[in-house]
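Below is how a single chain appears once it has passed through the pipeline. First comes the sequence as given, then the structure the pipeline wrote out for it. We keep one example in the README because the format questions we get most often are answered faster by looking than by reading.
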Amino acid sequence: MQDREEILIYGAGGHGKAVIDLARACGYHVAALIDDGVAVGTRILDVEVVGGAESLHEWRQRGITRAANAVGGIGHPEVRQRVFELLESAGFSFPTLIHPRAFVEASAVLEEGVQVLALAYIGSDARLGFGAVINAGAIVSHDVILGRVTNLSPGAALAGGVQLGDLSQVGMNATINVNVQIGEQCIIGNGATIKTFVPYGTRVWAGSTWPLRRR
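Resulting structure:
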């Protein structure tokens, strides 16, 4: 019998490894990994892959009530959204996971399923929507609002008052200027600089500055 509360993790890739360590740092015992594309019996950081989505109900019936979504969905956030839907339909809840070496201001509000990795900063009165991922070293300044299933890559920096729409992603070391609004389902490439509003579904290429300058 484990003394720590158990959690199931869906996703055995690179982000899966990060979430295993994150869950352990938060005091959970990782019971098993679910992944549709990894062979049953494979061990990742000493946690066994026990099956795909078809095995979720079995593990829920064993009494495990909590799950973490470790499918990063980089470039395809709808895949991460679909994993949440599978887990929810199987009856799992989604604890908010905050690494002990991250810093979250007391006035910030984090919804279910948010994952905050080491050395990230969440500023005053920030609002982080369901299932958001704040990777290592990312900065979420005061009054930022993140939508559902958003993803900030390592080193991304959001200035105060930024709004990021549902299912949008910000790449490594990208910077978003103060009070800028980014629409839903946008992808901001690594190292990009965002200076003004980005409309729905826009892809801003790595290293570029938005708005793009016309020649």
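Residues 4 and 28 are 6 Å apart (CA to CA).

See the next section for the split statistics.
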